[in-house]
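Review box. Two proteins, two foldings.
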Amino acid sequence: MGIIIDLDVMLARRKTSSKELAEAVGITPQNLSILKTGKAKAIRFTTLDAICKHLDCQPGDILRYETDELTESE
């Protein structure tokens, strides 16, 4: 998959727990876990907006693209 989710990195940088973020954003911890592990198939802009507001970051701080060659060789 070419889209990599670096939500764990931002949570660590902001010293915020997943539980706190889930409560602030209004999603379940299970859905946040799916997002963190890269198993999510989509994310609503409203959810991304809420995450970025809470973590004071840009969408590019959470999401990045890598070609399949890079992800397969890791």
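Next protein.
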Amino acid sequence: MNIQFRESPEAASPLTAKTAIADCDIHPARATRTELYPYLAKRWQHHLEIYGVHAYQGMTEGPPYPKAQPNASRRDAYPPEGGPQGSSLSFMQKQLLDPNNVQLGVLNPLNTGQGIRNHELSAALCSAINDWQIDKWTSKDKRLKASIVVGNEDGLSAAAEIRERAGDKNFVQVLLLSRNVEPLGQRRYWPIYQAAEEAGLPVGVHAFGFGGNPITPSGWPSYYIEEMVGHSQCQQSALASLVLEGVFERFPKLKMVMIEAGFGWAPSLAWRLDKAWQRLRSEVPHVKRPPSEYIREQVWWTTQPMEDPERREDLFDVINWIGWDRLLFATDYPHWDYDEPSRVLPAGVSEANREAFYLGNAKKLYGLA
């Protein structure tokens, strides 16, 4: 796998070198296996050396399907000084931040300590990741902001980590993954939403995860491409659970960001939920309004992937439904399906919507406007 090339660049909306952008999905990586040890108590360093991690599923170093390219990343993203893709700040600045005039970059570390059965170890690793993000990234480049990584299967410890980081300007959101032990609306996760709402932090739900369940509702598929398109199915289940369990009703100021799973499916899911809710609302009396209202008011969406229909009007119809003020640009750097900023929007977008899409929406959502 390598860099994604797109045909017909002439159809893209022009982006000048001076256009400042926000990249809402950047994946920093550790240069070495032991890079977190300075942030971990000796007990946990010893534990990792002797016992390793006991995860809900195997292959904790990546999603269930191995990629042809390590870390599912661009071949040209290896730092010249060595280490995996995404592990060098100086190379990230040279390859991503400077040439694309990235004014705000949101870090979403993966393979961090989430999805580990030992919840104390999970909490320790997530806290270490958060300290590491400050020391190695956000304190070295003020354009970068971090996501608070939490031990998601233990809602109480996750909430404690959020409250510990609340008010720290290095962090702009809480990071969850879409594949968990249970759907994200379940009560075990409510302490996370309560703490995030109190802190005024959005909760980002990134594709992937380590819940131990098959990645489709009908079992394990055969091909990597099925996993790639399956992220949208998983996010739909997560979003339906959040609505129908009453999370948005209970936490009306909570803001959710759906990351790396597309958004073209949002209108049809909302329409179907609205239709079913009209007939079955007696089963969920705690859901007091049509599901589409919660979704349109409390959910934001990142690009990469962004649907690419033949007719740009079809894409515009979808965006008009979810709202131009709800869409955030993302590259997914350094992964192989990286989106080039200058080519992601088709022509025909107004200047106001372009500015909001590339920068304004993110700065407003993350309280940086």
